[in-house]
Amino acid sequence: MKQTPSQTVGPFYSIGLTRQTTNVLVSDATEGQRIGIEGQILDGDGKPVPDAMVEVWQANAYGRYHHPDDKQEKPLDQSFTGWGRSGTDKNGFYSFETIKPGQVPGAGDSAQAPHVNVTVFARGMLVHAYTRIYFADEPANANDRVLNSIKNKARRQTLIATGEKKDGKAVYRFDIRLQGDRETVFFDM
Amino acid sequence: MKIQPYNNRDWKSHPPYLYEAYGSSVKRGPLQKLVPITQTLSEITGPLFSDIKLEQGEADLTRSAQTGIEAMGERIIVVGKVMDEDEKPIRNTVIEIWQANAAGRYQHPVDQHNAPLDPNFIGAGRCVTNDKGEYRFLTIKPGAYPWLNHANAWRPAHIHLSLFGPSLVTRLVTQFFFPGDPLISLDPILNSIPTKSGRRRLIAAYAHDVTEPEFALGYRFDIVLRGRQATPFEKSGR
User: Does A51 touch chain B (CB under 8 A)?
Assistant: First the structure.
């Protein structure tokens, strides 16, 4: 059987996909360091994309995914599924409230640096795009195989979110550039 | 830990990011070569929504949950099976749909097409596939609508679908069309798919066995998500 072809979400996806609030991944019971992630989606002219949508998928604070194929002997946090979805507003901004994920194993049983998996959709994008958010303050970035596979350092930098304290909470900024000289790295996976 | 990766995206089935006839793709499709990634736990896991509780009527778009009044237009039954490339059914996976009303207008502030809104039609629904991977929606046949992509541009009637499947890499957002629609061959969004067989796979089939007498016509639209590679490999790397 052949894969069913992808098509764009179009301009009106919010009717079906973002009527409910799905960008808050945490509850009071969730374990781990609370963080915010926010950013802007920009097109090839540097203009904000007001009809884009971002989905995130991440491990819990211990570095385990809420999924049966993750058989690690790490605790599961029943109050954290690790999935969220945010539309963009008229200025192209999306945002999430979540926790800093723990480290999960990668290729060759290397330890991956903490990261959030990102899927980007928009009117004008015929196929969704995959990227990852890494955190600027994580020393483990230096040994992350995915980051190190990107030879161009300026391009590698497009995957690093920088944090600042807002009301006592770390908020990481991660802009997604669909095109241009600082085009975000997207993955074939 | 053993990782059993999924098949790669089949770029003969999926559109490219840049397809000039679809104007909005020109500034929004990534232009750099995608960076290949070896699938890890991050890619082969994904949201399953196994504790999702759907409210009654979420798969029936024909009746307003608030008023209980029926929407205007031609009722249709849409069924199909969600499977992987090996034809294995994908069970308990969430399908979200959204669409225009019978007059070709979306219940959305950005849609200013001069066609009537229907207060009893929101145009969104959800369902979960059963043990055989099957789904079923009852809805209203959407109308065609104009858009500004080129002169006298009209989208053929279509319904949007969003699916997750078992992992991050099986994610799919698509739309399906209705057989015999003369606008299909003129649609740059559908024509962005590079192969004729790929384009044909987004056209639902009229299904007389699904049609219910004195009630509604039936259509069948099957969905194939990425399958898993045959042999799990032991990660070495030492």
Answer: yes
